[in-house]
Design a protein that fits this description.
Shape: flat
Bound molecules: zinc ion
Strand content: under 5%
Number of helices: 4
Structural class: mainly alpha
Order of helices and strands: HHHH
Distance between the termini: 25 Å
Number of domains: 2
Number of strands: 0
Radius of gyration: 17 Å
């Protein structure tokens, strides 16, 4: 992967991480009924958390945490020469897929197979 693309994905990953961190904090507050002390309600506006029922909120929270971890891993991995290479078949994951899912560790084909086998619960 060339350095321009790498820089782009790094930027994209960091933005997603920040966004998700924000979202997780807000969700955690609403799930735990938090909102203690001086937490500002302004960032609550962009998620429709209020309408979700508790179970759904917790499910989303877990999913987001998983993605958050994957994003963090991807940020650590991005300088690795294997970044953007499928961990299963060792082929390039493809820029288009990485644009949608910059933290992907598998190419589309392997991802699909993994999902149908429910292999390690990716996503
Ligand atoms: Zn693959």
């Amino acid at each position: 992967m060339n350095p321009t693309n790498k820089a782009k994905f790094r930027q994209s990953l960091i933005e997603r991480r920040n966004h998700l961190a924000h979202q997780l904090m807000s969700m955690e507050e609403s799930v735990l009924g938090g909102a203690q002390s001086g937490s500002s309600p302004t960032h609550m506006a962009d998620i429709s958390g209020d309408n979700f029922d508790q179970d759904m909120n917790i499910g989303l929270l877990e999913k987001d945490f998983r993605i958050f971890r994957q994003i963090n891993e991807a940020i650590e991995r991005i300088d690795d020469p294997n970044f953007g290479v499928c961990e299963s078949c060792q082929r390039e994951i493809g820029l288009r897929r990485l644009e949608h899912v910059p933290y992907a560790r598998l190419c589309v084909n392997c991802q699909r197979r993994a999902e149908s086998n429910n292999f390690m619960g990716f996503y």
